[in-house]
């Protein structure tokens, strides 16, 4: 649990507010007994609404309506629910969502752009503000945002509405009206399914819903729109590739690396040319990112500034880790050491992925570490921003993937090979750009099994090119172009004995590239399985293999719970089925036979101590806020290490707000009540949830 440390503040008034003194004092004594003293801003304090950048998390209570057309927008029948939530897999075709957001006059649109971002939606999503359609997106695999400035009206509630639809008819890819009349009755979405990742059963594959964070933000119209940080261990240099919107011919950019709030490296200013710039500097002594023995899960923050006539007009903060992966012959190196991975991947539609709660995700990664593994692959779907951020903080390696047609066979067929291929390639490009700053991603493995009719030899090179166009850093692609992959059946041809790693040894003898065994599958109940895993782990470690992905072998035992913890998504977004989740708060777990086996194998062959890492970001509950009259509460960094971050207050009368902040430290908690800006100094401490 994050400790929220309150510092006592004196009341400080703007001159124009002197007559409101008695009103302020009554607020401090009557409304917020749990927050010690409140203060009104002085003129020297920064008001959040004036900040060049800020964002507000809109997770919480939304209205919804099921199975309605996109036009007209429903005018009645809305039911309240907690969003984001688990995917709807019961055959629901579409969902309308809506909520109001008041944009105060202090958030005025002069020289400012507003955006709405969806972290994960399936499959089609359309965003409306005050009745205007402002953007459409096809596909569940990466976050996306749209500029909503033209529809925002400051000083009044703005109605945000989002329409999601499964992959069908005009909701599959732009310009297509898909006719699925030839599909069998038991699989009516046989073509739409080709655009969705595999699921346990065919009826769940084409799910719908908002299952990720919803964020409203603003930034200057003249802004740094993208920052890609590239670190080189071999050259000891740091490079930032920047994209800039709206800059004048005289604009410049500069950047500073922060370790917490301490500057440790400056990247000299450079001019903006054709909307782009590259900053670079040597760095003699960075701490390398990675799990033991490759480094430690050290994260830095790059503060990038856009300047006009020497004045800062925009500032953006980007977390990164200093690490590099490269290939020499049949070996991959991470930070000058031979890379070896042992890991697992999510089950299809795993609730821990879609609950959108950092705490169970962090606990899952910690248990993974205790079972002797240092890697996870998303495989069936993108891992999601919350989990990738946790992997960055905890030093867990990620093989990044987003699509597998998978099993059961026959779930999907493509409507057009060229149309499907073009869509998948553009999706891979969008996905890579969204995820490329995560140091935990050390190998790209965008796609796996394709629908019938799609040739791997044709589409793999196109997807690999799309990935490299967005990430030219040299991070390898495990599709046979940089790294070969291998699938290992644990049993022999007859299904009665184990392979004992002979197939791997034979494959390694023929290899000219690093080899990643990306799945071990088969009968895990054979008496010889323990000796097979031991032999296989030994071969993988001693020869030029990049590591193994064990497959869907459960590594810990589930226990019954009734969830009761807070989170940024709210308590309502939790499955209560004891088979779906674990007692995260009590941290009760028991390694299975497979978890124990991998613990022993990791110790025997790899040698470094098992990790016991935890998140370094903060998540905490701000209690006892005014139960009415306050819609949005912000945390603003007191040490200039982040832009202001806001959440909307729970509308259940509890006066509760749930925060997640990227860096611990000193913040001001800020909100406006009855026209008065109220601030509280708080210190966010790092959690120790394990």
List the helices and strands and how they pair.
Elements: E1 4-7, H1 21-30, E2 39-40, E3 54-57, E4 60-66, E5 79-83, E6 94-103, E7 112-118, E8 121-122, E9 124-129, E10 132-138, E11 144-147, E12 156-165, H2 202-205, E13 209-210, E14 214-220, E15 223-232, E16 237-245, E17 252-259, E18 262-271, E19 276-282, E20 300-308, E21 311-320, E22 325-328, E23 331-334, E24 337-338, E25 341-345, H3 351-354, H4 358-370, E26 375-377, H5 385-394, E27 397-400, H6 417-435, E28 441-444, H7 456-470, E29 484-489, H8 502-510, E30 515-521, H9 529-542, E31 545-549, H10 593-605, E32 618-622, E33 632-637, E34 645-648, E35 657-661, E36 665-673, E37 676-684
Parallel strand pairs: 3-34, 25-26, 25-31, 26-27, 27-28, 29-30, 30-31
Antiparallel strand pairs: 1-37, 2-37, 3-14, 4-5, 4-6, 6-12, 7-11, 7-14, 8-13, 9-10, 9-12, 15-16, 16-19, 17-18, 17-20, 20-21, 22-23, 23-24, 32-35, 33-34, 33-36, 36-37
Helix pairs in contact: 4-5, 6-7, 9-10
Write up this protein.
This protein is of the alpha+beta class and 690 residues long. It has 4 domains: 90 residues, Immunoglobulin-like; 125 residues, Jelly Rolls (Sandwich); 101 residues, Sandwich (Immunoglobulin-like); 229 residues, Alpha-Beta Barrel (TIM Barrel), CATH 3.20.20.80. It is 16% helix and 32% strand. It has 10 helices and 37 strands. Strand 20 and strand 21 form a beta hairpin. Helix 4 crosses helix 5, helix 6 runs parallel beside helix 7 and helix 9 packs parallel to helix 10. The longest helix is centred in the middle third of the chain and has 19 residues. The chain is globular and about 75 Å long.
């Amino acid at each position: 649990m994050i400790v929220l440390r309150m510092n006592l503040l004196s009341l400080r008034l703007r001159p124009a507010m002197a007559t409101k003194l008695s009103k302020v004092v009554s607020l401090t004594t009557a409304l917020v007994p749990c927050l010690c003293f409140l203060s009104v801003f002085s003129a020297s304090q920064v008001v959040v609404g004036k900040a060049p950048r800020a964002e507000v998390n809109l997770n919480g209570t939304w209205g919804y309506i099921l199975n309605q057309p996109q036009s007209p927008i429903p005018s009645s029948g809305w039911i309240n629910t907690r969003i984001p939530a688990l995917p709807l897999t019961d055959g629901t075709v579409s969902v309308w969502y809506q909520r109001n957001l008041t944009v105060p006059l202090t958030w005025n649109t002069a020289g400012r752009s507003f955006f709405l971002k969806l972290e994960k939606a399936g499959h089609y999503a359309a965003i409306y503000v005050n009745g205007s359609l402002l953007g459409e997106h096809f596909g569940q695999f990466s976050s996306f945002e749209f500029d909503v400035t033209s529809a925002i009206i400051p000083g009044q509630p703005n109605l945000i509405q989002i329409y999601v639809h499964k992959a069908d008819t005009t909701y599959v890819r732009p310009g297509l009206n898909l006719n699925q009349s030839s599909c069998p009755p038991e699989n009516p979405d046989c073509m739409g399914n080709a655009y969705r990742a595999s699921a346990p059963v065919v009826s769940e594959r084409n799910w719908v819903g908002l299952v990720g964070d919803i964020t409203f933000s603003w930034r200057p119209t003249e802004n740094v729109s993208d920052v890609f940080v590239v670190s080189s261990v071999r050259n000891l240099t740091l490079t930032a590739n920047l994209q800039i919107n709206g800059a004048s011919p005289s604009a410049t950019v500069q950047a500073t690396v922060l370790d917490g709030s301490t500057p440790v490296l400056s990247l000299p200013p450079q001019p903006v040319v054709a909307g782009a710039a590259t900053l670079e500097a040597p760095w003699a002594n960075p701490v390398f990112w990675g799990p033991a023995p490759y480094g430690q899960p050290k994260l830095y923050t790059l503060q990038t500034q856009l300047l006009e006539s020497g004045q800062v007009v925009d500032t953006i903060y980007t977390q990164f880790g200093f690490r590099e992966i490269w290939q020499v012959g049949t070996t991959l190196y991470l930070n000058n050491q031979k890379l070896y991975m042992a890991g697992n991947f999510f089950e299809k539609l795993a609730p821990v992925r879609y609950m959108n709660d950092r705490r169970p995700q962090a606990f899952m990664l910690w248990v993974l570490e205790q079972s002797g593994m240092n890697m996870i692959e998303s495989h069936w779907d993108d891992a999601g921003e919350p989990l990738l951020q946790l992997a960055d903080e905890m030093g867990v390696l990620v093989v990044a993937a987003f699509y597998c047609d998978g099993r059961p066979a026959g779930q999907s067929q493509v409507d057009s090979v060229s149309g499907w291929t073009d869509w998948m390639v553009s999706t891979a490009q969008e996905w890579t750009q969204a995820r490329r700053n995560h140091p935990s991603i050390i190998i790209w493995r965008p796609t796996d099994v394709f629908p019938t009719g799609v040739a791997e030899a044709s589409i793999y090179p196109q997807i690999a090119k799309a990935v490299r166009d967005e990430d030219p850093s040299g991070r390898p692609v495990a599709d046979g172009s940089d790294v070969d992959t291998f699938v290992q059946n644990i049993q022999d041809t007859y299904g009665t004995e184990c392979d004992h790693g002979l197939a791997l040894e034979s494959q390694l003898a023929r290899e000219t590239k690093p080899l990643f065994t990306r799945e071990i599958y088969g009968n895990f109940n054979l008496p010889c399985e323990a000796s097979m895993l031991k032999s296989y782990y030994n071969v993988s470690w001693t020869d030029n293999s990049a590591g193994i992905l064990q497959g869907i072998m459960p590594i810990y035992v589930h226990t019954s719970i009734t969830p009761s913890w807070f989170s940024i998504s709210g308590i309502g977004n939790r499955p209560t089925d004891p088979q779906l989740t674990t007692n995260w708060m009590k941290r009760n777990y028991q390694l299975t036979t497979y978890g124990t086996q991998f613990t022993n194998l990791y110790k025997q062959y790899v040698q470094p101590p098992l990790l016991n890492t935890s998140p370094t970001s903060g998540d905490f509950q701000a209690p006892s806020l005014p139960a009415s009259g306050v819609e949005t509460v912000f945390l603003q960094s007191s040490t200039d290490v982040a832009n202001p971050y806001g959440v909307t207050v729970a509308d259940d009368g509890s006066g509760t707000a749930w925060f997640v902040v990227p860096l611990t430290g000193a913040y001001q908690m800020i909100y406006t009540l009855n026209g008065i800006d109220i601030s509280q100094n708080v210190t966010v401490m790092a959690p120790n949830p394990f």
